[in-house]
Fold this sequence. Notes:
Shape: elongated
Order of helices and strands: HEEHHEEHEEHEHHHHEEEHEHEHEHEH
Bound molecules: adenosine-5'-triphosphate, magnesium ion
Oligomer: single chain
Helix content: 25-40%
Strand order of the largest sheet: 1-5-6-11-10-9-7-8
Structural class: alpha/beta
Amino acid sequence: MEKLQAIKGTYDILPEDAVLWQYIEQNIREICELYGYGEIRMPVFENTALFARGVGDTTDVVQKEMYTFTDKGNRSITLRPEGTSGVVRSVLEHSLLSGALPLKMYYNITCYRNEKPQAGRYREFRQFGVEAFGSSDNALDAEIISLAVSFLKRMGLKGLKVNINSIGCPKCRAEYNKALKEYLGGKLNELCPTCNTRFEKNPMRIIDCKEEKCKAAAAGAPRLLDMVCDECREHFEGLKKNLEIMGIDYQVDSNIVRGLDYYTKTVFEITSDDLGAQSTVCGGGRYDGLVEQLGGSPTPGIGFGLGIERLILCMKAQNVDIPSKKTQKIFVCNMGDNAKTFAMKLTDDLRKLGISASCDNMKKSLKAQMKYADKIKSEYTVIIGDNEIETGECSIK
Ligand code: ATP
Ligand code: MG
């Protein structure tokens, strides 16, 4: 029979590793509570159209990476490649924008992307993300960046870089796209096939291409940051000031791009040199056009997505101390049928008192039971035999 294995690009989190995941999840909950963000949980799959519109059909994610299938009702369904689209869909479906604004939410979800698996890149991976709707104030941009930075610091990471940029608004971007196309127009044969299709639809994404020849061709291209309109410039300058007030170090990186019409103004990435090629732990930005794009009334929004696998890789690379597995408090060894029944009842009573306990139920030898207790790192062992049942007393080791 063919050996059954986890699908390429997916992996199991075994009990030993789950301790770290639980620690991270607890910290996600705590930091979000601290900042006033409530949790939202969405379905794993949605209509494909949501992602085509919400992520953008010129992106790599939508063009190459989605797990899409037709279900029995002949509907096109996609496993979510990211969280923001689903959150916006849910927010609109439940009219949450008619409540108190800004609306602030977080999620901790699995995502699915059909990309080439490698270190820090999986086909099923996990993302912690936050989204805030209803305010276009740059204090909110700073708050979101502060939340990500505080969380990563809490997880013990050092030497992270916060890179920020502004990609303007549809108004100034139209001017920029014109200038960019003028610059790249004579270099089309130097660009990869994907960038050639981007040239008409979404030239800004060429700046973001990872192909060396595209990077070289775009090296001297005009910078959007130099061309943003007054409103976008003011927003960006204000964000920088806010970050300074909060004591967050940042760098301006004019190469960060989220080249879609509904992404606006602030974009940012948090990177670590300890991560090799997949150096981005967290990516986010403002998307003032997205809610409208998905059928709501125009509402500004901003958020980030933070890859937990990359967070863990970084924690391991930096040898961050992580809490060790909580061990069993008491293991109840027992000899003979009477003692076995007694041990079962005693273990049950201990658990009812909130004390973690287990007992042998394999009729192992006492030596084997002690060995097992040792292996599972039980803090204490007790031994129940006829004597202990009679006197109602036992010693604890
Ligand atoms: P990259 O440039 O590395 O492909 P991205 O721009 O596609 O990243 P986003 O869509 O911004 O990534 O997702 C936010 C975060 O999710 C990333 O910064 C990263 O930490 C994580 N991430 C994205 N794709 C994967 C993946 N395939 N496996 C593991 N983590 C991922
Ligand atoms: Mg990607």
